[in-house]
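User: I'm preparing a small set of examples for a lab meeting where we compare how different chains pack in three dimensions. I only have the primary sequence for this one, and I'd like the structure in token form so I can line it up with the others. Please keep the answer compact; I'll paste it straight into my notes.
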Amino acid sequence: MQLTKKQKLILWMGLLVVYGFAGFIQSQFLLSPDDLWLTQLAGIVLKGGNYVSNFFETTPPMAIFIYTPEILLEKMFFVPRIFGLLLYTFFCATALLFISYVLIKKILLTSQENLLVVMVLALSIMFLVLPAEAFSQREHFFLMLTTPYFLLLTCRLENKKINIALALFVGILGAIGFLIKPFFIVIFILLEVYAVLIFHAQHKEKKAYFRPEMLCVLIVLLGYLTVIAVFFNAYLSTIVPITLRFYYESFRATWFDSLVQVPVISCFSSYLIYFACYKNNPLKKLSLICVLVLTGDLIVYFIQNIPWYYHILPAFSISIFFNIFMLVLYIKHNHPHSILLNFGVGLFLFILPVYCLLVMFILEASQKKGYQSLICFLHKTEFHQPVYILSAYPSSFISAVSHAGAYHRGSFEFLLWMRNYTNLAFLNMLTHRQKKDANYLAGLVARDLTHQQPKLIFVDTYCGLLINGTKICVEYLHFLKKNKRFLLAWKQYHFLMSMKKNGSYQFDVYARNDAFPAVFPIVSPSCSVFSACNIKSHSTAFCSVNKMTVDPNRK
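Assistant: Understood. Below is the structure token output for the 555-residue chain.
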């Protein structure tokens, strides 16, 4: 299949627009704190660090391994972490887009050059634009790494000849993607069960069942499990049990809340267009594979039952990709001259996704603007210095720290076991085992303060709004001070000031007793420095030398 000069021009111009738009979007967002946290852990693991001994992270090692190339990129070319992570992700997207292009060419007929251009551009949107706030997230890498795998499976079902080296490479990439999170293996199983059923129906030889790429996934899986058992045993013996007792119980939403998210609702349009266009669909096998992947992604989303955007990203993305090329096929084979009808179908398929992305862009751009004063403050006072946060909620604080050139060296991204501490009923029902876990984890926080000696500690004082309208906060220090090691470590700190930006953050800031006066060119942290940053960033953030009001229910 050869593209004409006009088609090549459209393809390259389209890719240029997509890459430029993706770069613009990321310039307006704070990079996800999860990405930066896992990248930091990748650096620790490369130095010989391990779970529990150096950090406490709920995701398995593969979620850390995928970020190690960025660390090597940092060391080789001396690039800042945020720029390095963006560069690494764009490179991965480009490489995997090229592999996908090669496989799509094999799937399509020689007369479908226009559809090839559409599908490649749709994939580029899927890899670079749709991730938005989830750019460089684990689900983003899963999406990119496994897309060539399901395209290759489509080639197999259509009896296309595939180079063995390409099949092995796609298999290794797919294995990495499927193993980033344990849930993702569900999608691999779903695809392989379908493949076995089809091969059996086609009366193929038994060797057809054992494809090189499938064997690669199984071999990598076995090797990966061995590596975890030998080198990361603490993940199985300590992290997993505590995670099961605290993490999902505190984050899990209702089924209804997970279902009524805009990206989830938009995914169901793919099922409608699949059945509506089935009769005249020339790409039945690819379409069915897309629907199976979408179904698997939705199953994974509902297993986790936490309605965060990056959890639904794989399903949302494959739905958009599928809807784009199915819309083109629908127009071509059903109503090529009915402009009004085609516009209506397109509006039905894409109005919700566009609305979702637009709202997300506005909120995330506003979030970055809201953090500018804090970023400026940290850059002036803590450049290349360690800082720490006490919060039970994933926040953009770690992103702000990275943008400022400071660093967070704690064992936790957030204090996951305290997530439900706003719920008095939950506190009263804590088991003896959970109380021991909480005391053990508080001891790890004390270890951080003793060994890392952060210059500033930011204690989250944001109060969530409950259903009955009552504001309630988590008083982290009240609970952490029950641990003797933490109480001893905390004596090295004193209250310095409070800072607040409505809708973004609210912190009480504590300084280490021996940290000041600061060494030139770093200035001592104070409300005057924060106020100067406020003026510079045109922000309305607030700073005070008095503590913020705490939850009256805890007094």
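A couple of notes for your slides: The chain has 24 helices and eight strands. The radius of gyration is 25 Å.

User: Perfect, thanks.
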